[in-house]
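ARCHIVE CARD
Drawer: 12
Card no.: 0347
Subject: one protein chain, sequence and derived structure
Cross-reference: see card 0346
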Amino acid sequence: MVDVSEKAVTVRTASAQAVITMKAQTLQMITDGTAPKGDVFACARIAGIMAAKRTSDLIPMCHPIPIDSVKVEIETISETQVRVISRLKCTHKTGIEMEALTAASVAALTIYDMVKAVDRGMRIDEVLLLHKDGGKSGTYRYQQ
């Protein structure tokens, strides 16, 4: 792991996304609330939050971070696509980007898991860091 003992404690934020593409009928089933495994988006939000809290257990060189806030939002962006956005905040010596990326990824994977029985052709794309702020390197914003 990188030595962060000399770094200043600052407020750090990060947001990340994942986009999942599926059949229109699958997304309709999710939004109608008729998925066999239950409320897909609620379960995905919880999974994303839980994953953020366990990031250092999943990624070997990642520092455990005291997370102050995790939000996982899920929005329909077309009749076949859903976008997961995670927003995290901490006050620490190192950033929270990996937790944001993990939250978005695991939430998208949970959506896949919840409806894979009806649509195995779903695709998870565009997993990326949207924004990060705080620390020595300052602010980063994804530019398309």
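Annotation on reverse: Residues 48 and 103 are 4 Å apart (CA to CA). The helical segments are 24-32, 40-53, 55-58, 97-115.
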